[in-house]
Each structure stands twice: as C-alpha cells, then as structure tokens.
C-alpha cells in the first residue's frame, strides 16, 4: 500500500472531480486528503489528492494519461513524504541554510539538501556539519555566465528538483530564470511589492513602516515579480534602526521561506498565471 | 440554476467522495467548492460541497436520502448565502450586537437577526436602529426558569436557527443548553481553556499573561467546555490595567465571534465530538 | 490635582530629561508615564510625559516657555483624556464611521465627533443615531474648490482639531493638505508603499499577495506618502476574490484607523520628518 | 565613554526620575534610552536607563548606593551588550539550543553559552559545532539530587548568570528552583495557564483549540507558575494531528524563548511579584 499525492490542473468543466475520484476508486484507492479550486478568472481547475492505494505507479500513470487526454489535464504523481532533492544557494548570511537544514534533520521537512552553492566560503562549515556538499562558485561581472553554467551543471548532475535562493544576493540571468522556472524559490526581504530591488530594509526604515515583511516566491526573469508562495510580517516601531530591521527580518525571512519550501516539497503549490494556489 | 451547499458526515470508508461526486454529476451539478476530512481518531468522514445545479431540492434530497442509507450518512442541504435566522442575546455591552448587525447590513454576513433578547434595556436603542425587535427578559434567581421558557418560546415562534450569546453574562441551565445544542454560539472572553468562569480579564491580569484572547464555541451543558469554533489573541504588556484588557479584549471578542458566526452561517462548521471541523 | 500630558521635541543634547523632570518636580508633579526617543538620524529628541500636578496650566505653560527657549523646544500640554474635537469625512462605506463612533461611545476613545462630512448621503442615518451633525457636501470636478472651502469653514467654526478621512475616496488639493498638515489622518486600503493610488484590492488580487493590509497615515500633499502612524495585515489565500479582499480589508482598515486615532488623540504620535514616533 | 544600562526599582513616590536623571547628569551622562513604570497595585516603581558616560563603574556605583539608601532602591548596573554567561539545559530536542546558539553567533544575541547540560547525548554534536562544552548529566529518580548538585557546581564554576531550560523535560526540585530564582528561564510548550503539566500538545489537540502557544517564564518552585516573560501563538486547524502540533509548536517555542532570553540578557525584564515588567 503506497500513499500517493496527485496534483493536476485543466480547463474547468463539470465532471472532473467525479472522474478523478472514479479513477482512484477503480484502483482501490482511499482518499485521505483532497482539495480543489476553480479559478473563475483563468477558467482553470486545480486539484490535489492524497490517496492510499496498492496500485503501482505504472498502473496509475496509465489511467491518468488517458484521463488527461480527455480533460486536457496536466498532472504529477509522487509518493507522500518523498524528500525533494534540493540545492541551496547562499552568500554570507547563514540563517536560511541553517533553518532549512535543521528542519530537514529534526522537523521532517521533506527535502534532501544535496548541495550548497555559494559565491563566498562562510557557509562551508555549516554545510559540512549537516553533511552537505559545499560548492564554492565565485561570481564576478566577468564570470557570471560561467558561474551560472556551473550551477546548471550541478542541477543536472545531482538530479536537483528544487533550487532555493536563501539570500543569494546575486541577480540571475533571464536565461537561468527560464531554465529553473517553477523549480526555484527565492526569499525576498520585503513585503512585496513594497521595496523591490536593493536594500529593502533601508527603504523600509526611510519610509517609516510599522511592519516589515518577507516574501517567498518563484523565480522568474522579471526581478521580484514571480508568483508569491508565502509572505509574513513582524511589527517594528520607531526605535528600530536599519540593523535591527535586518536582524528582525531574518526571522520573518526564514519563517516564510521554510513554509514555502515545505508546501512546494509536499506538492501543495500550483502556479496559476502570476498567482499561486496553495493547498495547505 | 441554484447554488447549493451540502454538508455531510458518515463513518469513513473508501468510495464516499466518488459516490457524492457521482450523485451530483447525475443531477447536472457543477462543483464550485469542495472540502473533506477524515478524522483518524473518531473514524468519521466529513465533507462540504458547493454545487451549481438545476435540480430541485426534492430531487437532490431523494438522492441524498438513498445515499445516506448506504453510508450511514447525516447530511444537510441549503442554498448558498441564505441568511440564517439568528437571535442575539446580550446584557449591557453593545460591541457584539453592534458588530454582527453592522456586518449583516454592510458586509454580507449571511444572517438575519430576527430578535435581540436582553436582561437589560440598554441594547434596545441599537436594536431599533437596525430594525430588530428587542425583547426585554429580566432574569433573577427566582425567574430564571421563566426567562428561559420565554427565550425558547421566541426561538420557536421566530423559527430561530442560531442563538448567539454576545456577552450575555448569564449561565444557561443544562436543559436550555441541551435544547440549543449545535445551534447556540457563545463568545467567552478568554483564550480557553485558560481562565474559565468569571472575570477572565482580572484573572489574566493577575497571572501576567502577555497575550489576551477570546474563544467562540458551541454552548454545551458543561460551562466553557463546548467545541471551539474560533479563537484569537491580542498582545498586551505590563502597562495594561484590567480595564484596558477589557477594552482591548472587546476587539478580539467581536473578531472571533464574527468569524465563528459567519462560518456557522455558511455551513462551514461540523462538530466532531468535542472538536470542530471548520472548512474555511 | 490635574492629570497632564506633555509632549515635546528639540535638538538632542544631554540634560533634557533632567531639566524636564526638574520642572515638573518644582511644580509638585508626580510622573505617571514617561517615554522618550532620540533619533540618531535627525538629531531630534522626543518626549511624552504624563504627570499629576496641582499646578495650573498657566503656571506650567510659563515654566515650559522658559525651558523651550533654552532647548529650542516645541511642546504641547493637554489634559489626559480630554476628547479631541474630530470631524469624520466619508463617502458611502460606513465601517470607519461606525467603528469610531462606537468606540467613542462605548470604549472610551477620547474623541468627540462633532461633524460628519460626506459627498453622499448614506452616512446621514448612522450619524444621526450617534447624535452627530451630518453635512452633505457634494463634490464634482467643477465644485471641488467650493467643497474644500466648505470643509475648512466647518473646521474653523467647529474648532475641529482632527480630521479623519474614513475612506473618503476623494483626492484633496495640495492647498487643503497643507492647511490640515499634522491634523488629518487618512486610512489607505493597502499596506503602503504597496499598491498606492486607486483600487488597491484589485491590484493586490492581481499580484497574488498572501496578506492584505491597511495603513493609517497623516495626510500630506504627496498622495499616500504621508508619515505612517499604524499598519496592520490579514492573511488571505487563493480562494479570495477581489470582493472578499474588500470585505476582509474593511476589518483591517478600521482596526488600523482606530488605533491611529486613539494614539493621536492621546498625544502619543510625534512627527519626525517622514516618519512618526508612536509612544504606545 | 562607556554605554551603561541601569535598572532599578523602589517604592513609588514623586522625584525618583528627577533624582536619577540628576545623578546621571552629574556624571556627564547622556541618556540614550529610558523607560519607567509605576505599578499602582504593588506600589513599586521600575526604571531602565541606557546612558553614555565617561564615569567609572565605581563612581556610578557609589552615587547609586547613596541614592538607593534614600529611596529604598534595588539597582543593577551593567555595560550595554555585555554577553550574559548562559548555561542551556536540554534533553533530546535540539531546536532551542540550535536557535539560541545560532542567534548568539549570527544575530548578536548578547549571551555567551558556556555550557550545555543534558541527560541525553544527542545534543553533544551540536554543542561541539558551536564550540560549547557539553556535559552529560544523566538523571534517574535515584540520582536526581546528585544531578542537581552537579548542575549547581557547574553554575558556580563557570560563573553562570542565566540558566535556560530549553525543553529539558525534567522537573527541578524546589530547592534548585529557589537557588536559581530570577536567573532561570523555562520554555513551556503551551499558552499558559492553559495545559500546564505534561503533554500539552496532546491536551491541546483533545480540546480542539484553534491556536497553540508557548510561554517563556522564570522558573519558580510552583510548576509552570513563574512570572511570564513572553508568549506567542500559531494558528492550527482540525487537520493537524498531535505530531503536527508538536512540530509547529517548536517554531513558537524557539521564537518566544529567543525573545525572552534577549530581553533578559539586555536587562529589560524586571520582576514585579508574579508578573514581569518588560521594557522593550
């Protein structure tokens, strides 16, 4: 008996739930969790089902392929809880890597961090503590293309399914963004769309906001414009300097990032144009 | 075409979703929202479906009755958005009534407040402003039974579906609690199970808590022990006196109560033993 | 014995607290609350003191005037809890007026709403219920100047100290903004600086944010750029339509606005360039 | 020039602030932060001042001793930012130690963890990574007294100023609680006073609460009854099993604990009977 998670999307129309439930029933499946959403704006239907079944992947895949043809459906089938092969990119700040690696080890975050890539070396020690291979890939204006090629090489070699930009601080080329579309998550240190671009905490301080935030989103070629997966905020007041905001912000960043990574790794996030469906 | 909301529960077993989806498909239904939950502890399955269909209530009811027999199912069918006939009980504090009446008028809260019952008269003016009949039913130790009889009379006469205790400040008899089981919501002015019973804000102040809360729950014969529908909190600090906690608490109370009433009125709350399922 | 609240600001330098505390001690004052802040960026010092004293206003004012000369100090002295004369401007949405008027009556919000001004008539009934004079001042492109003149006339006639724009939906002229500088609070229905300008909830929906917010700020000639007093947020998800965001946003708006108005009326807000000091 | 932090308390009466400000002015001090609170119930006055001054500790101490005699004052003087020597006790769960050690290294938490004490060995590796001495002190019913003696020995030998119980899971003897009074912080995994004692997440699940919480408090001989420093909560729903609550709760625990430890280490927490003053 395997515990499967199935996600799918297709143009909305009557009968989809019945057809999916029927397919699963035919394979002796017992649905343990099910969520759906029809977006009236895009006309797309989205569904996530967890089902216990003795059927093999091949049997389910065959049936789903037939169903997909009928409903113009895109689908993905995985085993519940299978760790997603993840590569974390970082710079000098350790809080994102520290948080994700800790949660993988101690809190059942279903990822396996197979590599840390950084343009600095300060994260090497932490990676080693968690038994993760560390790759130092320096980046200068002259070597950016080369560095990105090395990253893609690692992604391929290591069968990386998810790239997490944990305060990587480098802007990716349009080409790399496209290569990683739908499988790269960035944590931006502001409550987007406020304070896009550089030094958001300094911007937030200058504007005198009373809450600071962080935004986890899929990477797209348009900077800080990708579909938002999760946001969170923290209250601040006039006594806080920019340095305080940066420190307090780290908490918000790692919280929002950890949730986004968990939901992605549990196949709870589906992209609907510029927006995300999150079946929590 | 009617927009229906169906809620149901039954012992959990494979095939329920398929059977329900099939029944709805046979009646030309288009599912617009669907949530389900199988409680591994109680072994019960719970489901809420919104469906657009041309079928009549009688047609759907016949089919559901047949299905219910097969699955030992309890179900309820209503029209989405139909205002639930509601009676609000209060004492002297106006914030709960003011909030619910305002939300009914201006924010689409799907209730119709058909009566306000109070053991004081201060809420009469507010009820009148909103065009709601006000019933002054004084309560003393000697007249409690009589007052409760009058309340039940009103519930029957006015076809009341939901009784809201908006800081009513009187303890109901076991008998009345049983009569109103599943259709009476109380707002308790603490984060239950902390500070049950009387003067919770004074208790909270004495204990030096850093957050105060409120709890909306179904009324049961056991005081402050009914299934919790919603809770919320607000941060406080050492500078707050008991009076401040009471004032700040009013905001939390009306927020938690308004959400609980909305979810109940939208048929999003199902009772699972001592706990609630809330399909938000 | 009077309970005074004193706020002051001046260039920061050693000895200010000692001098102020000395002045108050000389007048037999007992400090009950005191907060201060030195802004390292602007070099300004800010202080708020509540003090019980038998001294008259004239005595205290004389002493403060002398002190102010020595420290280049701006100061204001008021009686704790004195209701601030307030004019509320609104359009058709009632939630801001309803909330402020209710809190004035039942929750000790220290304002006295002396007039409601609106370019529509729907708020008249609510104003009447609370015994507040309602002024219908229609606005068209042609009559804007005339309408603003009428508003200023009311502000003068009624000794208005605070103007609250409770979703007024009209852009004020630069001239009017300057006239009301420091004594007009607007509630913007987004988490500024996100979604400035028109239709912020539609913008928020299109961007797929996971939290919506509201911002209470002082009105300045630059639209939605005034010093922020308070912000708050509420979690939303993919199932929410624009209409849901508007409804959920109303709760956030009234919460943030009520806090900002309370803090202003209690003389807890001091302006420090583009930012505010809030001595909560 | 040293940046000092002074905290004090004494019976409330007029003139304290003036006297303290005068003392600091006489020593050429420039006040950078100052907070005070007079508790009307206990009649005690509390104050925290940060002041830049060239005076030596001896000079300030002499003056404060004289002032203290006059006002029956208890006071403490420290250098701003001096790391507080801290001993962390844990069991098998690593999240508290991981969080505190990371914040010490990367986020300027002003503590120095000088030892980790545990009745298990799983935390040894993490302690080693952070260069902290690990002491394995097994505890059985028979050896409890011996284990506590060993702890007190370490506290003395290492000049420990603060003991943090980071999910230590052992009940301390009354005697040890008294020995560590005011310098031991425990994180309880519930929103106290809800769910005191054992297995709070199981209790919370059974009660069907909609928010789970954590409470950081000073250790006293009465179990889970010490003065509360900080509390926080996290929203949960019916889909969460006890294991989920435990995992989600770890986030709340480490957040509340980290804040409490920071405030304690920055001398922002003063005990007022069963309650705390937190000058944030």
Automatic annotation (TrEMBL), chains A, B, C, D:
GO biological process terms on file: 'de novo' IMP biosynthetic process; one-carbon metabolic process
Domain ACT intervals: 5-82
InterPro entries, A to Z: ACT-like_dom_sf, ACT_dom, Formyl-FH4-Hydrolase_C, Formyl_transf_N, Formyl_transf_N_sf, PurU, PurU_ACT
Assigned EC number: 3.5.1.10
Pathway, per record: Purine metabolism; IMP biosynthesis via de novo pathway; formate from 10-formyl-5,6,7,8-tetrahydrofolate: step 1/1
Alphabetically ordered keywords of this record: Hydrolase, One-carbon metabolism, Purine biosynthesis
GO MF annotations in UniProt: formyltetrahydrofolate deformylase activity
PROSITE patterns per record: ACT
Reactions mediated catalytically: (6R)-10-formyltetrahydrofolate + H2O = (6S)-5,6,7,8-tetrahydrofolate + formate + H(+)
Residues of the active site: 224
Coiled coil: none
HAMAP family per the UniProt record, alphabetical: PurU
Family under the similarity heading: Belongs to the PurU family.
Role: Catalyzes the hydrolysis of 10-formyltetrahydrofolate (formyl-FH4) to formate and tetrahydrofolate (FH4).
Name this protein carries in UniProt: Formyltetrahydrofolate deformylase
Gene: purU
């Amino acid at each position: 008996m395997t515990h499967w998670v199935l996600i799918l999307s297709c143009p909305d129309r009557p009968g989809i739930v019945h057809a999916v439930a029927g397919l699963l029933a035919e394979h002796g499946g017992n649905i343990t969790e099910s969520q759906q959403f029809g977006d009236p704006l895009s006309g797309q239907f989205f569904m996530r089902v967890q089902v216990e079944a003795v059927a093999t992947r091949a049997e389910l895949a065959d049936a789903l392929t037939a169903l997909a043809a009928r409903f113009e459906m895109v689908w993905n089938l995985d085993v519940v809880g299978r760790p997603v092969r993840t590569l974390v990119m970082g710079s000098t700040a350790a809080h994102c890597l520290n948080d994700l690696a800790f949660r993988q080890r101690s809190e059942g975050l279903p990822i396996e961090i197979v590599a840390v890539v950084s343009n600095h070396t300060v994260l090497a020690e932490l990676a080693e503590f968690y038994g993760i291979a560390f790759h130092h890939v320096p980046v200068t204006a002259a070597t950016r293309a080369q560095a990105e090629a090395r990253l893609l090489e690692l992604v391929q070699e290591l069968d990386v399914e998810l790239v997490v930009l944990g305060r990587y601080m480098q802007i990716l080329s349009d080409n790399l963004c496209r290569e990683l579309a739908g499988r790269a998550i960035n944590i931006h240190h502001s409550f987007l769309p406020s304070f896009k671009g550089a030094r958001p905490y300094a911007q937030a301080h200058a504007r005198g906001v009373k809450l600071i935030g962080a935004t986890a989103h899929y990477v797209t070629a348009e900077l800080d414009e990708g579909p938002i997966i999760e946001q969170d905020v923290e209250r601040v007041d006039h006594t806080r300097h920019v340095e305080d905001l940066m420190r307090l912000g780290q908490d918000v960043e790692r919280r929002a990032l950890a949730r986004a990574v968990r939901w992605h790794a549990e196949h709870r996030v589906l992209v609907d144009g510029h927006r995300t469906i999150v079946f929590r």
